[in-house]
Amino acid sequence: MTNYHLDHLQHLETEAIHILREVAGEFERPALLFSGGKDSICLLRLAEKAFRPAELPLPFLNVDTGHHFPELNEFRDRRAAELGARLIVRTVEDALARGIAQAAPGEISRNRLQIPTLLAAIEEFRFDCCIGGARRDEEKARAKERFFSFRDAFGQWDPKNQRPEIWNLYNARLNQGENMRVFPLSNWTEMDVWEYIRRERLEVPSIYFSHRRRCVRRGGQWLPANDLVPPKPGEDVRELTVRVRTIGDIISTGCVESPASTVDDIIAEIAAARVTERGSRADDKASEAAMEDRKKAGYF
Amino acid sequence: MSSTNDSPSAPVPVDILRFNTCGSVDDGKSTLIGRLLYDSKSLMEDQIEALERSADITGGGQINLANLTDGLRAEREQGITIDVAYRYFATPQRKFIIADTPGHVQYTRNMVTGASTANLSIVLVDARAGVIEQSRRHTAIASLLRIPHLVVAVNKMDLVGWNEQRFREIRAQFEEFLPRLAIQDVKFIPLSALNGDNVVDPSPHTPWYVGPTLLGHLETVHIASDWNLRGFRLPIQWVNRPNAPKDPALHDFRGFSGQIAGGVVRRGQRVLALPAGLPSTVKQIWTYDGSVEEAFCPQSVTVVLEDDIDVSRGSMLVGLEERPGFGTDLRANVCWMHARPLQAGRKYLLKHTSHTVQTVVTEVVSRLDMGTLEVQPSPAQLAVNDIGEIRLRTARPLFHDAYSVNRLTGSFILIEPGTNATVAAGMLQASSETVRPEGAEYEI
User: What integer best gives the mean pLDDT of chain B?
Assistant: First the structure.
């Protein structure tokens, strides 16, 4: 007798494909946020599974903070070209120049400035839906996020007024100017993402694997030494064998010392890990409610 | 997409168990989830550190496991869980998705949300209080949503001196009303979430209890048969037509993409395309990983038919056996989720599988009294968090199954035009009419 059984990855995969096809069926102008990071790499494969053999029915959008790892942007551009997808890049630099975003005095991080840049891009292209690779296991505020996350005309998330999401029936209806953020990987964990990358033999940017890098000790973690925030006298600077576990901007992404040079190594490392993925992101440590505040303002 | 794992080095497939927890405000839900994560070694150092940090500030040095799940600031301030939060953990046996749903009376809609996709529900009962209205309400909702498995976690057993008699009394209170509900599989477990007894590790205080710990039960409960594998149903989400394919074989490709909502489909099988009512044959089951001979619920596939017939988003392909019901006059149970109450005559949009139709509520038949589980006929309205039976008329016929037969083709939501609010979760009853194909060639 045939065994009609899906393992956990197949289960997560069919759920995500269903969501992507609902997006294609329900929205006029959807876009997929592609950064080149591991989560959005999985999204790309899921989009291929949802829409091939046809062309992907949505462009890729990326907000470039100007503080990206160069390896990541190279990977992003190449993958979009390989898949025959249209890639739209909007930069924080340009948003600052055009007065769409304003930096606070002394503000170096581009984290907050991504928000107005993204909202301006949504307006420019009249996107009614943006697909993102966020996962609920990343952070406490994300744990309450819906698959279809409604944003008002100001791009704001209201955690107390979310649409109930029942069975697999997603309410995708919007009024003028409103927007939906859709997260097909909501139910995936960091481990699921890497196991999927292994099963699908997906290419990931080299910085996820062990490499030699000059790092500077700040806030209890090793950050990549960079020209944007140069090491100050007295700061501990060392060349280490590291990899990144989650990718944010080059000035805030913690590097972990690791010999992991293959996907199998990474999976073994995560299985034994004693710190969460976002534990290496300085932007989330700012306060216990840091993510909640950014999401309400329109962040992913 | 294949049903077997073709890579010899791949790990043994694990499956996913989705469960939700419900109880009233102080029954210790968040503590129980915190305990499951803590004792199953699913917590990381920085999470434990954050717990200890907040313990120093607000907890007088005592780690509060509930802080793990009370994610939003508003909740931390009010000390209650205000929305559905999802948690993930894994053991070598299984992956788990927890929907942590609140126990406040006014938050029934959140429980329905969290429970709608669950294989199993945990109803928490405070051993001191016994069965209260919320216990009955939560159990009734689990039953209405046809959650196959129920666990009654009798918590705070330490506060009643681990008294076996008390445990038996609570069990008897449940067994009084369970026969009126649709739940097949019920397990009672005495535990203390705060101290960890019988959550992950067996308790030394309950020599009289011979069953599994909570985690032991979650790891082993049989869920393989929770999907409907009988009548084939494929609601079409998207029509797949390549624009300018380089591969000449794809020039005339026209595939129908969707997630199988019931049963099994095989290449060469005769199917019916609804609403057209036209029969055809499955020419190909296309997947990114290659064509397959058969596919089953809940796989996502793209089906190519032999005949060029009218199929678009909102259509449904079904097997010739176990055909769905259809009609424009429908009966359903609903959970009302909006502050504006439901009254007969109101118009809504109804989303069912992959299509949305206009509908009018023609009658509010009854309301379920959650305190007594008695049915109250002909109420004036259904208010927020009410559960009741209604009649609807739709602008176009709905092809559907009874919710008790298929959760995916028997469920719908109601959307209020204008505000676009999701106002109800609905569960269809069996239709008096069954789909018949057009034309004379049809035979079984």
Answer: 86
My answer on whether A172 and A41 are in the same domain is yes
Q: Is A148 helix (H, G, I), strand (E, B) or coil?
A: strand
The structure tokens listed for A240 are 């280490």
Of B90, B264, B422, which is closest to A163 when you measure between CB atoms? B422
Query: Looking at chain B, which residues constitute the CATH 2.40.30.10 domain(s)?
Result: 233-319, 325-428
Q: Which of A34, A51, A15 lies closest to A185 in space, CA to CA?
A: A15
Mutation target among A140, A142, A179, A291 for the B interface, most CBs of B within 10 A: A140
C-beta separation of A125 from A88 below 8 A: yes
**pLDDT tens, A17-70?**
999 999 999 999 999 999 999 999 999 999 999 999 999 999 999 999 999 999
**For A166, nearest residue in chain B (alpha carbons):** B113
Measure the CA dihedral B18/B22/B27/B33, to 10°.
Answer: 20
| Count of C-beta atoms within a 10 Å radius of residue A2 | 9
Q: What is the ipTM of this complex?
A: 0.90
In CATH, B15-226 is 3.40.50.300: yes
CA dihedral over B402, B16, B239, B439, signed as positive or negative: negative
Query: Is residue A166, in this structure, part of any structural domain at all?
Result: yes
Q: pLDDT (tens digit, 9 = 90+) per residue, A177-208? A: 899 999 999 999 999 999 999 999 999 999 99
| B172 vs B174: CA distance, rounded Å | 5
Paired with B292 in beta bridges are: B285
Q: What is the pTM of this model?
A: 0.91
User: Burial level of B111, CB count in 10 A (0-12/13-18/19+)?
Assistant: buried
What is the residue whose two structure tokens read 């009798």?
B154
d(CA A177, CA B332): 34
Range(s) of the domain holding residue A228: 206-283
Residue B302's identity, in one-letter code, is: T
Question: Are A163 and B421 a contacting pair at CB < 8 A?
Answer: yes
The 3-class secondary structure across B241-255, one letter per residue, is: CCCCCCCHHHCCCCE
Closest CA in chain A for residue B13:
A7
Residues of B with Cβ-Cβ distance to A22 under 8 angstroms? 237, 354
- Same domain for A156 and A13: yes
Q: Which among B72, B407, B420 has CB closest to A159?
A: B72
pLDDT value of position A282: 55
In a domain, A94, yes or no: yes
